[in-house]
Amino acid sequence: MISEEQVDERAESGALTVSVDDFSALEERIQRAVELVKRERQMRTSAEERAITAEAQVRIQQPLLDQLQNEINAMRAERDQVRQRVERLLAQLDALEL
């Protein structure tokens, strides 16, 4: 017959085997998690660098954007003046034809 000590030893060795397998699986999961965190940090750092670069480009190009907006506004005003002058000339021509 098997003594209680032998049963306990077998149970412990079986538990140890399962524990070793569980530990190996846990170790793999932790390694994957660590790699995932490393990649995420690298991606975040890269994204932050791109954001800083984009912000710098916006600051550099903002004066040009302002200048171009001013030119567009000036051209629109000039277009409106030309339209009004053409309308007056057309009105004068219409008056001559009557």
Largest sheet: none
Task: Give the helix level as a range of percent.
Answer: over 70%
- Rg over CA atoms, rounded to whole Å, is 40 Å
Q: Estimate the mean pLDDT confidence.
A: 87
DSSP strand count: 0
H and E string:
H
How many helices in DSSP terms?
Answer: 1
Q: Spans of 5+ residues with little confidence (pLDDT < 50)?
A: none
Q: Assign the structural class, choosing from mainly alpha, mainly beta, alpha/beta, alpha+beta, or little secondary structure.
A: mainly alpha
Q: What proportion strand?
A: under 5%
Beginning-to-end CA distance, first to last residue: 132 Å
Task: Give the helix/strand layout.
Elements: H1 4-97
In short:
The chain is mostly helical. It has 1 helix and no strands.
Q: What would your notes on this structure say?
A:
- There is one protein chain.
- The protein is mainly alpha-helical.
- It has one helix and no strands.
- The longest helix has 94 residues, at 4-97.
Which tags fit this structure?
mainly alpha; 98 residues
